[in-house]
Design goal:
Strand content: 25-35%
Number of domains: 2
Number of strands: 17
Helix content: 10-25%
Structural class: alpha/beta
Number of helices: 11
Distance between the termini: 19 Å
CATH class of the largest domain: Alpha Beta
Radius of gyration: 20 Å
Oligomer: single chain
Order of helices and strands: EEEHEEEHEEEHHEHEHEHEHEHEHEHE
CATH superfamily of the largest domain: Medium-chain alcohol dehydrogenases, catalytic domain
């Protein structure tokens, strides 16, 4: 075991503090990564505050990890020392079920092993990217193209794939009208990717406060959902709505904005239940769906796509001692658009 500096939450709802953790030694197929940058995802806050249920403490959050390979096991064939790499939301899965074999490891029948707040196959807790180093099986490591800065690439490992996957699955592209609901850490990536795919893109946000940003990132239209006229004007407009909102919504109102057989795909996960009038989906044959990150192959596809289109996250780079303040600012929607930790400051 190797001792590594990290930031951890010692208990639920407690402030994160500097500490040390133990990383396993590099095994046959392992890659040791010197972490350079780690994004702060809203998921980190949900988990630290046990918003989604009981969690494992102490917890080192972080599943938007970018760094450089510092050591490889003797059986590693995909990576070499010095490679620019990333780690996303999972670090293992069963590798045997139909989903794993089809490249959808995120839906593993046995459950994927989350990068943090989980137990690995040996029953040991996993610790995430708010740390100086991580050891991961090569099959769950991604290659970051040279044209992407590691700082702006880190959020792609969650925010990027979380929006790319449903946009691809439901056919966003030329001739389609796509709405991105929410203009935050996930939403701004959804706008950039949907635009690059060739869709006509509309942002649906509570206010017009970020309108200029949205248009610069590729949105064709921008509407405030706080204005009731928006729902009258846009009724029956969209082929696809990707909701990145992590608060309960009036789903019936948003389903009304879809064309017949359109889909409302949810990637934001509220802590509270939501209600639905089933006539909102029966009428017009509309779909209410969910999407969770993407498999390893699709995540690599996303990174290559973003590199090819010059897409990185819009970030605020912070030192590690600013993590707790960053959490509060995320909760207040006071970030444009993703906090990224310079892990050299841990």
């Amino acid at each position: 075991m190797t001792t590594v500096a990290a930031y951890a939450a010692p208990a639920a709802k407690a402030p994160l503090e500097r500490t040390t953790i133990e990383r396993r030694e590099v095994g046959e197929h392992d890659v040791s990564i010197d972490i350079r940058f780690a994004g702060i995802c809203h998921t980190d806050i949900h988990q630290v505050r046990e918003g989604w249920g009981d969690a494992i403490f102490p917890m080192v959050p972080g599943h938007e990890i970018a760094g450089v390979v510092s050591e490889v096991g003797p059986g590693v064939t995909r990576f070499a020392v010095g490679d620019r790499v990333g780690v996303g939301c999972m670090v293992d899965s069963c590798r045997e079920c139909d989903h794993c074999r089809a490249g959808r490891e995120q839906y593993c029948d046995s459950g994927m092993t989350d990068t943090y707040n989980a137990l690995d196959r040996n029953g040991q807790p996993t610790y995430g990217g708010y740390a100086r180093r991580i050891v991961v099986d090569e099959n769950y490591v991604l290659r970051i193209p040279d044209s992407l800065g590691l700082d702006v690439a880190a959020p792609l490992l969650c925010a990027g794939i979380t929006t790319y996957s449903p946009l691809r699955r439901w056919g966003a592209g030329p001739g389609t009208k796509v709405a991105i609901l929410g203009m935050g850490g996930l939403g701004h990536m959804g706008v950039k990717i949907a635009h690059a795919l060739g869709a006509e893109v509309t942002v649906l946000s509570q206010s017009l406060r970020k309108r200029d940003d949205g248009l610069k990132m590729g949105a064709d239209h921008y509407y405030a959902t706080a204005d009731p006229k928006t729902f009258d004007e846009l009724r029956g407009t969209f082929d696809l709505i990707v909701s990145t909102v992590s608060a309960p919504l009036n789903l019936d109102s948003y389903l009304s904005l879809l064309r017949p057989e359109g889909t409302l795909a949810n990637v934001g996960a509220p802590e509270e239940p939501v209600s639905l009038n089933l006539f909102s989906v029966i009428g017009g044959g509309r779909g209410l769906a969910g999407s969770m990150i993407g498999g390893i192959a699709e995540t690599q596809e996303m990174l290559d796509f973003c590199a090819g289109h010059g897409i990185g996250a819009e970030i605020e780079l912070i030192a590690a001692d600013g993590i707790n303040e960053a959490y509060e600012r995320v909760m207040s929607s006071d970030v444009r658009y993703r906090f990224v930790i310079d892990t050299a400051t841990i």
